[in-house]
Here is the input.
Amino acid sequence: MSLVKLDGKRFPWNERLIDFFSRDAFVDDDFFNLEKTHPSMNVKEHKDDFEIEFAAPGFEKKDFKITMKDDVLEVSAQKRKEKTEEEENFTRREFNYNAFTRSLQLPPTVDRSKDVKAVYQNGILTLKVHKMEAAKNNQKKVIEVA
Here is the structure.
């Protein structure tokens, strides 16, 4: 009886099938990348307000819609761009549609009677949400770890 050495791949055709289906030239973009539909966000707490930043490059000021109802701040943006070519016989045609919606639960220290200030510059949407006067005087308590 002779021994045959295996390379550890029990079903070598599985890898070939995965390569075959993942190398489609027409669907080679980041179509299934969910991170692109949800912009990154930073929240900074200052003495007088909260500063919220969204990384949203490629939009214009008119594309944003910002609403505040009760204790929920909703930021959404929508932009549609169509790239057309003169030729009728095309292999690939691109429609570009960018949109996102993000809802934030605001803390009870937010002053809802004051307007939220929004500035869009260099691909960053910055929102300033004011704190209530009672919250401005509230100092943080530092807790030591024993």
Observations:
- Residues 38-84+93-136 form a domain with the Immunoglobulin-like fold (CATH 2.60.40.790).
- Residues 84 and 93 are 7 Å apart (CA to CA).
- Residues 25-35 have pLDDT under 50 and may be disordered.
- The longest strand covers residues 72-82.
